[in-house]
Design a protein that fits this description.
The structure holds two protein chains of two kinds. By secondary structure, chain A is of the alpha+beta class. Chain A has helices at residues 2-22, 34-66, 69-75, 78-104, 216-224, 234-241, 281-294, 308-319; strands at 114-121, 124-131, 134-139, 141-145, 150-156, 161-163, 172-174, 180-184, 190-195, 208-214, 271-272, 277-278. Chain A is 41% helix and 19% strand. In chain A, the strands form four sheets. In chain A, strands 3-2-1-5-8 form a five-stranded mixed beta sheet, with no helix packed on it. Chain A has a three-stranded mixed beta sheet with strand order 4-10-9, with helices on one face. Chain A has a two-stranded antiparallel ribbon with strand order 6-7. In chain A, a hairpin with a 2-residue loop joins strand 1 (114-121) and strand 2 (124-131). The radius of gyration of chain A is 26 Å and the shape is elongated. Chain B is mostly helical. Chain B has a two-stranded antiparallel ribbon. The longest helix of chain B has 35 residues, at 75-109. Chain B is globular. Classes of the chains: A alpha+beta, B mainly alpha. Chains A and B meet through helix 1, helix 2, helix 3 and helix 4 of A and helix 3, helix 9, helix 10, helix 11 and helix 12 of B.
């Protein structure tokens, strides 16, 4: 009785993971955006149609092997080939093609879209907003208003990346020297996870992002927040003295590096290292001293020469940037 | 035919004489073998070993992904392993094994004694094994490429991939593709010119059809990737910025070229496998294939369509939706010919009664898996669905269904089906175990992966966090992969216990098949070559085997005392001549080692050694070719091949096999050049200021260059005229020298013209593209100069006396192409900018 039990176990694992998986933070089958919704519907149609055709072929094969002679005679000639292999797929595929072309037509923006420029970098995302004529920059976490079209202007700063937030919309590549544009509308508030979908070398598997869809009023309030940070305190002085500002910018301060992520709102982010670790005091400290062992090949140097106190001061400073 | 050409009894020593002439080299001298059965077995065996090796890489990947945040493999190793898994499976396993099956089976199926250029297929094999082993070996020295089997720049540029890994990929794979093209030429000429009398095109076994289409597709598809690898290697080594957007290149150019090759590649692998299935189904159902004509039309249609689909790998690159719709439609249309084939197999099974051998089981498994893979293929051909599924595990599942289901299952069916041709049969009991393990293991691995992709897991990630709940699905896939591997292991055990290939025949036609490959019982397969009057000659004429074995049919003897095969006309297969084939030797072996050494040493920048290897290869080529084209043996200009049928023993001109080989080679060269023209025009479309008008030479330069080409053509024409008439040696030599000088001068003038006007290849994409035309022209010019020198040397040595010899004709044809390509280049580089501005 080992075999049925093993089979039951596999079925159990499978059904648990299926149920758990479909409603995931990064799942095509759990849409929270307009185009993701239409694609998820399309997927269901395709699955149903595909299963039907597969069953039909299996049944025809079974009938050809062991069916009654009447059916086998019907199947055993060129007419059956033309009906099953040409006429049937031609009709089904033409219908599908029309459906697919219609579903692929771009979203018609009903209002002026919010513009968000995203630059893919090895291995993080630079995010630049322009709201009411005011531009500001953040990284790896994108806030969008629910119900308002958002136009993502996608570029790359080095190699090819692909911007993919499955709950929101399909993916679009980020190509050096080109600008691609993806328009999407979030339909419900919540957190969605996205990930780079084009292999971009090294820790490609650790290049993820987070989209936070929030009510429009909340979003407007967030976007209007002042982002200038103080230029005083032990943390700030250490940040500048250690040379962090060579790569990172903190708005309103002397730190204005462009190589790494802008940290002006670091303390509001849930994750660090492009969704590699949750932002906690301990993780931020580890990241400062040993980013390269957490995310090998990342361009963040290991600040191993700092004392534990200094590291702790820096972490506190960073987590206070809100 | 009721009257057989030969009477019995045959002369006493006739069979022994055939045996002596075709005696395969044994012991360590087996490496000098050239016979298709021997080379085919080496070839298939090597490709199968690469399948196992790349399979182990797959298992390592599955082990790493079995649980979240696993540290079994670090990211660097994982990236190398997935790159090598894909590259080795595609380039060192799939294409070579299909070509190997062609080398083993095609001559037998068409009733030929061997392929028309035995040393060429031996060369292709040795180049492949040396290149392949070194390429795979880079894994053990941490030198493997890690940019994915698709090698997209700029990730693979020298800036982002500084090591030699990418160079190993570019030079190693580029070189193995050249070997694949050599094999394809051989297969095309063999199929079109050496079929048994009466085997018209519409009587050809389906597998032979698929091999013909497969080889033609290689000729037209592989040059695109060869050009792409040349461009990227030039960018890496010398900074020619073909793919750098900042300098007027474009990274998408690589993707267009790669997929223009890459999509046909899928059908290159699949079509011959479908051909195997057609043959096995007909044999096992004991009835002629239902819908033979429909299948052949479907195969040709697939070959055509497959060149119009490449953009469906690029649906997410931001190409306008309107043009995507075209490629979406074409991608769906290609499922029609597949539908025809599936229903033709079903119809054949319904018409006859399928014997459930192991081969049949693998075929039935194939029908299920391939249909499923085809349906998910229709899904990803839907543009919006692909925006989500692209580069996720859904696609990984899809193409493993198509490739393992569509190609590996038929391959295992073929192993069980055709082993009795050369050995005792494999075990039907073990085979059934193997099938069920593989079938269940495969589905357990890849069916859940569709879902893994849709719940968000991208491809090519070395790990994933636990929070995303992908662990369970991945664990199931990993378990399935080991189950599948266990099935393959059972086959290995079976092979180890029973596979004892013998060139003097195996168990014989135990399945009662109707096609000619089952006739043979020695290296020279069929004892005599029958006239064929139906698609399944062994079924149509039950006495055929006996008649052939008794030597009652054509070419029962060896009239010129050498290895020979019959040349027939391409369509109707009426006897035209016999040709003499070479036997074992070392020259092709040294040439292969030298070529491989040249490319591999270039990779590690050991220039002097590389040049030495290149020269060794060149010398070996000359030694190889020097004794060829001997002309008709004295006193045996025509010979009796049986029943008083007198045929010439020497061919030249457009009817000859060597002429056709040159034509096919030139098709590949033209395809390479067309890919270049596409690339030039493509980069031109990326920016209105792409052409640097200030750096264009004035019109006297292209005119002077054209004058050189015209002078070269005069030389070629004169040399041809002298050769036709069998004229004076000295005048012929002068004509060849004039031809070589004119063509070389034209190239030099073209390069210097651009240089003096200030254009540099490393400054802009435009400059790089302009000089690239001369790079392509230079490789043809070098080949032509060598050929012309070789011809002149043979003329001087008195080896080409007499009218109508093949060597000057073929070299003249090659030279004419080089001149035409040169003119095309001048028109593109100097004429097009005028029109475009």
């Amino acid at each position: 009785m080992i075999v049925p039990r093993a089979a039951a176990f596999v079925m159990f694992i499978a059904s648990v993971t299926v149920l758990a998986g479909c409603s995931g933070e990064q799942s095509v089958l759990d849409p929270k955006g307009e185009s993701a919704e239409s694609i998820s519907k399309l997927a269901m149609v395709l699955f149903a149609g595909g299963s039907f055709v597969l069953l039909f072929v299996v049944a025809a094969t079974a009938a050809a092997l062991a069916g009654p002679s009447l059916i086998r005679t019907a199947l055993g000639g060129e007419t059956a080939i033309l009906v099953g292999g040409v006429a049937f797929p031609a009709v089904v595929l033409t219908a599908l093609l029309i459906y697919g072309v219609l579903a692929a037509s771009p979203l018609q923006a009903t209002s002026e879209p919010l513009r968000v420029a995203i630059e893919g970098k090895q291995w993080w995302w630079r995010v630049r907003y322009e709201v009411d004529g005011r531009a500001f920059e953040t990284a790896n976490e994108i806030r969008v208003p629910v119900g308002r079209p958002v136009s993502f202007d996608l570029t790359s700063g080095d190699v090819i990346h692909s911007f993919w937030v499955p709950n929101l919309a399909g993916k679009l590549d980020m190509l050096p020297g080109r600008r691609t544009q993806l328009t999407a509308v979030a339909t419900q508030a919540g957190v969605m996870r996205g990930q780079c979908a084009e292999f971009c070398g090294g820790p490609h598997g650790l290049m993820s992002l987070r989209v936070v869809a929030m009510a429009a009023e909340q979003f407007d309030a967030w976007a209007a927040q002042p982002r200038q940070q103080q230029t005083s305190g032990a943390g700030y002085r250490l940040f500048v003295a250690a040379g962090c500002g060579g790569c990172h910018a903190v708005d309103g301060t002397a730190a204005n590096g462009r190589i790494g992520p802008n940290l002006s709102d670091f303390g509001t982010r849930a994750m660090l290292g492009a969704e590699t670790l949750p932002v906690t005091h301990e993780n931020v400290s580890r990241w400062i001293t040993s980013a390269k062992s957490i995310k090998p090949e990342s361009l963040m140097p290991d600040f191993a020469h700092l004392t534990p106190d200094e590291v702790s001061t820096l972490s506190t400073y960073l987590m206070g940037l809100k | 035919v009721t009257q057989l050409p030969n009477a019995t009894p045959r002369p006493e020593n006739e069979a022994a004489e055939l045996k002596r002439i075709w005696q395969p080299p044994s012991g360590w001298r087996a490496i000098t073998a050239v016979n298709n059965l021997q080379i085919g077995l080496f070839y298939a065996g090597t490709a199968f070993l690469f399948f196992l090796a790349a399979g182990v890489l797959g298992l390592l990947m599955r082990t790493q992904l079995a649980v979240p945040s696993n540290t079994f493999l670090d990211q660097q190793t994982y990236n190398q392993i997935f790159t090598m898994h894909g590259t080795v499976m595609m380039f060192l396993f799939a294409v070579p094994i299909v070509e190997a099956l062609g080398v083993i089976l095609v001559p037998g199926m068409i009733g030929a004694r061997d392929l028309p250029f035995p040393r060429l297929s031996a060369y292709a094999f040795w180049a492949y094994i040396i290149g392949g082993v070194v390429f795979f070996g880079t894994l053990f020295f941490d030198l493997s490429p890690n940019g994915g089997w698709f090698m997209y720049p700029p990730l693979t540029s020298s800036e982002h991939s500084p090591g030699v890994g990418a160079d190993f990929w570019l030079l190693g794979i580029g070189f193995i593709e050249i070997s694949a093209i050599a094999g394809a030429i051989e297969i095309i000429v063999g199929i079109l010119l050496t079929r048994a009398p009466g085997m018209t095109l519409t009587r050809m076994p389906v597998f032979v059809w698929t091999q013909l289409i497969f080889a033609a597709m290689i000729i037209f598809a592989f040059p695109a990737i060869i050009l792409a690898t040349m461009l990227l290697e030039l960018e890496r080594a010398f900074g020619w910025p073909f793919f750098q957007a900042a300098k007027g290149g474009d990274s998408l150019l690589w993707q267009h070229l790669f997929w223009f090759f890459g999509h046909p590649e899928v059908y290159i692998i699949f079509l011959p496998a479908a051909g195997l299935v057609s043959m096995i189904v007909a044999t096992m159902a004991r009835t002629p294939l239902v819908g033979y004509h429909l299948i052949v039309i479907a195969l040709i249609a697939t070959g055509f369509f497959s060149f119009g689909l490449w953009v469906h790998h690029m649906f997410t690159t931001g190409i306008p939706v309107a043009s995507l719709a075209f490629f979406s439609a074409a991608s769906m249309a290609v499922s029609l010919p597949s539908g025809i084939q599936v229903f033709a197999w079903i119809a054949t099974m319904a018409h006859g009664r399928l014997k459930l051998s192991v081969a049949s089981l693998f075929v039935l498994g194939f029908v299920f898996l391939f249909t499923l893979g085809g349906l998910t293929g229709v899904m990803v051909a839907m543009v919006p669905f692909d925006w989500q599924a692209h580069d996720t595990y859904f696609v990984v599942a899809h193409f493993h269904y198509v490739l393992i289901g569509g190609m590996v299952f038929p391959l295992f069916a073929a192993i069980y089906h055709w082993t009795p041709m050369l050995s005792e049969p494999l075990s039907e009991r073990l085979g059934k175990w193997a099938f069920w393990l593989m079938f269940i293991g495969f589905n357990v691995t890849f069916l859940p992966m569709h879902l893994t992709g849709l719940v968000g897991m991208p491809r090519r990630v070395h790990t994933y966090p636990e929070a995303l709940n992908w662990g369970g699905l991945n664990l199931i896939s990993t378990a399935g992969a080991f189950l599948f591997a266990a099935g393959v292991l059972v086959v290995l055990i079976d092979l180890a216990r029973r596979f004892r290939p013998s060139l003097s025949g195996g168990a014989g036609n135990i399945w009662g098949s109707g096609t000619l490959e089952w006739l043979g019982n020695d290296t020279y397969v069929p004892r005599s070559i029958p006239r064929v009057e139906s698609r399944d000659p062994l079924w149509a004429r039950p006495t055929l085997q006996q008649e052939v074995d008794d030597g009652r049919w054509y070419l029962a003897n060896a009239p010129t005392g050498t290895r020979e095969t019959l040349v027939t006309t391409p369509v109707e297969a009426e006897p035209r001549a016999i040709i003499s084939l070479p036997g074992p030797g070392y020259a092709h072996l040294i040439a292969a080692a030298g070529t491989a050494g040249f490319f591999l040493l270039l990779t590690v920048k050991s220039i002097a050694m590389a040049v030495a290897c290149g020269l060794a290869a060149l010398v070996a080529f000359v030694v190889w070719m020097w004794p060829s084209d001997k002309g008709p043996p004295a006193g045996k200009e025509t010979v009796d091949i049986g029943g008083g049928l007198m045929l010439p023993s020497y061919l030249s001109g457009p009817q000859s096999h060597s002429w056709m080989a040159i034509v096919v080679l030139l098709c590949a060269a033209a395809s390479l050049y067309l890919s270049y023209v596409f690339s030039y025009l493509y980069l031109w479309t990326t920016s209105p200021q792409w052409i640097d008008h200030a750096a264009r030479p004035n019109v006297t330069w292209p005119l002077a260059s054209a004058l050189g080409l015209v002078a070269g053509y005069g030389g070629v024409l004169a040399a041809q005229r002298i050769a036709r008439a069998g004229g004076s040696r000295n005048r012929a030599v002068v004509a060849w020298i004039a031809a070589a000088c004119g063509i070389t001068a034209a190239l030099a003038i073209e390069v210097f013209g651009h240089w003096q006007s200030g254009l540099r290849p490393d400054h802009s994409g435009y400059g790089a593209m302009v000089y690239m035309a001369s790079v392509l022209q230079a490789q043809m010019v070098i080949a032509f100069v060598i050929m012309a020198a070789f011809t002149a040397a043979k003329i001087t040595a008195g080896k080409l006396d007499g009218a109508g010899r093949a060597t000057p004709q073929n070299v003249g044809l090659f030279g004419t192409y080089v001149i035409a390509q040169g003119i095309t280049g001048l028109l593109l580089l100097h004429g097009f900018p005028e029109v475009a501005s």
